[in-house]
Design goal:
Layout (H helix, E strand, L loop, with lengths): L8 H14 L7 E2 L7 E4 L2 E5 L12 H14 L15 H12 L3 E4 L2 H12 L5 E5 L4 H8 L8 E4 L4 H11 L6 E6 L11 H10 L3 E6 L14 H6 L6 E6 L9 E5 L2 H9 L3 H4 L5 H14 L3 H21 L13 E7 L1 H13 L2 E2 L1 E3 L9 E6 L6 H21 L4 H7 L16 E6 L7 H8 L7 H10 L11 E9 L4 E13 L6 H11 L7 E7 L9 E3 L6 H19 L3 E7 L6 H6 L3 E4 L3 E5 L6 H6 L3 H10 L7 E6 L4 H17 L10 H9 L3 E8 L8 E8 L3 E9 L4 H4 L1 H15 L4 E6 L2 H5 L4 E3 L2 E6 L3 H9 L4
Parallel strand pairs: 3-12, 5-6, 5-7, 7-8, 8-9, 18-20
Antiparallel strand pairs: 1-2, 2-3, 4-10, 9-10, 11-14, 13-14, 15-16, 16-17, 17-18, 17-19, 20-29, 21-29, 22-27, 22-28, 23-24, 24-25, 25-26
Helix pairs in contact: 2-11, 3-11, 4-5, 12-14, 13-14, 17-24
């Protein structure tokens, strides 16, 4: 089968960021001729600053500023040499001060990102394995992925899931020298903690377990000498822990620091660590500012600063406790997250707060799942109690207004974050709309359904009647689907929107690269349902095409769209779906902005193909109107095989033929890992055989009708469209008889013979279909997931296989 064109993760991030930028909440520029830390100028307005990561305010401390200016005066703006050769004159004193803070050997790096790139490949051996917490910072994940080239396995677990971690440890405990678990000390979005105590207890049980903690957001505001949350929990730094802190953010200067108590490992990292060797060293001003900050950290003053910040954090918590705002994680860190659910609600809320005079950060994909968009608030020593209280009052006032503006409610936000919802929201019902939700096609008016949804794929009324029967009452759970039919009408009973949904089991790697699916399939030999999820989908895995009717000219078309999206959320919650998928949109769908605003990500699907036959009276006429290049393809790659093959149209196959059809379909499906799905139930093929709307185009060697080379499974939709839904082929004889190309040709020939004006050729193999005159259509799906775990885990696997 043709190679699938895969979704590009970076393109998705670009689209999300562009959307947020256009909403005026991302990629902003601070204004003003000076900066105090308490206020920040945005678009000409002075706002109270609740977005800094300088939690103690040391970046504005006069001692750090004076030290930096003196260093520039004495040593210049930079010291342009690698530290491997010689360090600038201030470095030695800084290293001695930071060593005194930690009480263990340290390595200073240009920043934490370059530090991870230098340290991780040096610390992790080829015979080790890495396990990532799926919320560990991008810079750690990115550095870990470098080890794929050395065939170091990289696994991922759900956030802070110790049972999943232990399962991974057991998987590798007898085959790997060290098992590295990599996590943040304080997580930068929600402000929650790594379970350090429990992790250390696990390392006593599994001696190969080592830890790599990125604690840059835990630095300075907690711990002895401000050395951070992780070391505060540990007390002493064990030899199986590598600990990253920062000299920027709360520390007030620039750079990052690694602490390591294992002498051999320290020497290995220090001697040669990639960017540690080849990158430029910190500028003299940064080194001097860090030295001044280190002296504060080594004095009793650091504990006074920590206490002042803690009082502000406690005050903010106390103010929040009197509200019903969705605080995602209650903790004592300086980082807070108020959920908004949908991105467009987040944009609205942030803009409202800025209008009230408060600057906060937007939390958005990929830092959080798209439907977990929210406002990230940081408390610093710059913030005074009056503006802390003012921010809470502004949020309490504007949160419900932002929900109302974006056609959502608090219940939907709490559900998105799996928070308990107590208050009762006003139901968002429109007297102008009537929503019908039906469980079977038999409850749907056949004439009306076919009028609006017929003439496309296998989902006219009769097609759905067929599918309902095939996908129920089967022994395997992947073969049992639930159907829902949604009809949204205006007050006069006129349909504005119609569609159907299925709830079924999908493989999580359905659109992943084929080599990733191949590796996952090996694990499915032992666990058939490994990495599979129940999915709520527009349309179904069997059908292809525009799975919705929508009258965009109707005055309530937008309201009908919002009603469908809210219904999808409620249905997902009721059924326990892990993902919602809206299928088969074109590249320029008018739904794009709405779906992004509601927390859906766009992914590219395999192209689909169609053939228009109106006005063509014979296969000869059809071939003649092809381009000269495509006619040559027909004469060279298809026509010569006619002499050695024969074909027939079978509407009622015998038992032996049906058994062979199943086998040949299975041969195609197991090879098509680029669109990896579960098999179909056996009775599907028997039901096809008994249904007058299905027929089989069967190709055999000439004179050997019992030897089947290939079969096309074809459905006739109301005489309007011919649908070759699936194909089965003998791969041993595929090239000998040009089987696939012949079946495509015979499908066109058959549609012309029975006077059907259009063929929906389905997805994949668009290159071959184009050569026979098919029109290729780009297709996209919109996904809404409960979290990013599957997306990130599959991303980690890319390049390993």
């Amino acid at each position: 089968m043709a190679k699938i064109k895969h979704h590009n993760f970076l393109n998705t991030v670009h689209e999300v960021f562009t959307d947020a930028k256009q909403a005026g909440v991302l990629h902003l520029y601070a204004g003003g001729k000076s900066f105090s830390g308490r206020m920040i100028e945005v678009n000409g307005r002075e706002l109270y600053h609740f977005g800094t990561t300088g939690y103690l305010g040391l970046e504005q401390d006069s001692r750090l500023k004076e030290a930096a200016m003196n260093a520039i005066e004495k040593y210049g703006t930079q010291f342009p040499l690698s530290k491997s050769y010689i360090s600038n004159p201030l470095y030695k004193e800084l290293e001695e001060s930071i060593l005194q803070m930690y009480g263990h050997p340290i390595v200073i790096t240009k920043n934490s990102t370059l530090g991870h790139l230098g340290v991780i490949p040096s610390a992790v051996d080829d015979n080790d394995v890495i396990i990532l917490d799926h919320q560990v910072h991008w810079s750690v994940q990115n550095a870990a992925k470098m080890l794929k080239t050395r065939s170091v396995p990289i696994e991922m677990i759900r956030h802070n899931n110790l049972q999943m971690l232990e399962d991974k440890i057991k998987k590798y405990q007898h085959s790997k020298r060290h098992i590295w678990y990599m996590a943040d000390g304080i997580y930068s979005m929600y402000g929650d903690y790594a379970p350090v105590t429990e992790l250390m207890a696990l390392s006593k049980k599994y001696l190969q377990l080592h830890f790599y903690f990125d604690d840059v957001h835990g630095m300075s505001w907690v711990g002895k000498n401000g050395t951070g949350y992780v070391l505060d929990q540990l007390g002493e730094l064990p030899e199986n822990v590598l600990l990253f802190g920062t000299l920027s953010k709360t520390f007030g200067a620039s750079g990052a620091v690694l602490a390591c108590s294992n002498p051999q490992l320290y020497d290995k990292i220090k001697t040669f660590g990639g960017p540690l060797t080849f990158s430029a060293q910190l500028e003299p001003a940064s080194v001097a500012a860090a030295m001044a900050s280190a002296q504060i950290h080594l004095s009793p003053e650091i504990y006074e600063l920590q206490q002042e910040l803690r009082e502000r954090i406690n005050y903010f918590n106390a103010c929040l406790s009197t509200t019903e705002l969705p605080l995602i994680d209650q903790n004592e860190s300086p980082v807070f997250y108020i959920g908004t659910g949908m991105p467009k609600t987040g944009y609205n809320f942030v803009n409202r707060l800025m209008q009230e005079g408060f600057y906060v950060n937007l939390g958005i994909f990929p830092a959080v799942p798209v439907k977990n968009t929210g406002v990230r608030i940081t408390i610093s020593s710059h913030n005074q109690k009056q503006e802390i209280k003012g921010l809470v009052e502004a949020m309490e006032h504007h949160f419900p207004l932002a929900l109302e503006d974006t056609q959502t409610n608090a219940e939907r936000v709490f559900h998105a974050f799996k928070l308990e919802y107590k208050a009762q929201s006003k139901p968002q019902e429109s007297s102008e709309l009537t929503i019908e939700i039906l469980d079977t096609i038999h409850q749907v008016d056949k004439t009306q359904w076919n009028r609006f949804m017929g003439g496309q794929g296998v989902y006219d009324w009769d097609g759905l009647h067929f599918l309902e029967g095939a996908f129920k009452g089967n022994s395997q759970k992947e073969h049992n689907w639930s159907f829902r039919y949604v009809i949204i009408k205006d007050s006069k009973g006129v349909p504005i929107l119609m569609t159907f949904l299925t709830f079924s089991l999908w493989k999580d790697d359905m659109l992943a690269q084929a080599e990733i699916s191949a590796a996952i399939e090996q694990e499915r030999i032992e666990d058939p349902y490994h990495l599979s999820s129940m999915v709520l989908s527009l349309g179904s895995l069997f059908t292809e095409g525009n799975h919705r009717y929508w009258d965009k000219s109707h005055q309530f078309s937008k309201e009908a769209t919002y009603a469908l999206l809210e219904l999808l959320e409620k249905t997902e919650q009721q059924l326990g779906a892990k993902m919602t998928v809206l299928r088969d949109f074109g590249a320029n769908t008018s739904w794009h902005e709405t779906l992004y605003g509601h927390g859906f990500l766009r992914v590219q699907m395999p192209n689909s193909c169609s053939v228009e036959l109106a006005g063509i009276d014979s296969i000869e006429s059809y071939i003649e109107q092809l381009s000269s290049r495509n006619r040559r393809h027909f004469r060279k790659d298809i026509q010569p095989f006619f002499e050695s093959t024969q074909f027939e149209i079978i509407s009622n196959a015998n038992a032996i033929q049906i058994r062979e059809f199943k086998r040949l379909f299975g041969e195609v499906q197991k090879r098509n890992l680029g669109l990896n799905t579960f098999s179909f139930p056996d009775k599907l093929f028997e039901r096809m055989n008994k249904n007058e709307l299905w027929e089989f185009i069967v190709l055999s060697p000439k004179g050997k009708p019992n030897t089947i080379l290939g079969v096309m499974f074809c459905y006739t939709n109301q005489g309007d469209v011919y649908v070759p839904s699936f194909v089965g082929m003998d791969y041993d004889l595929l090239e000998t008889y040009s089987t696939y190309r012949q079946l495509l040709y015979r499908t066109i020939e058959r549609a012309l013979a029975i006077n059907i004006p259009k063929i929906n050729f389905g997805m994949t193999a668009s290159f071959e279909k184009r050569k026979l005159g098919a029109t290729v259509h780009e297709k996209y799906a919109y996904l809404q997931t409960n979290d990013n775990f599957i997306l990130e885990m599959i991303g980690v696997m890319e390049g390993q296989h």
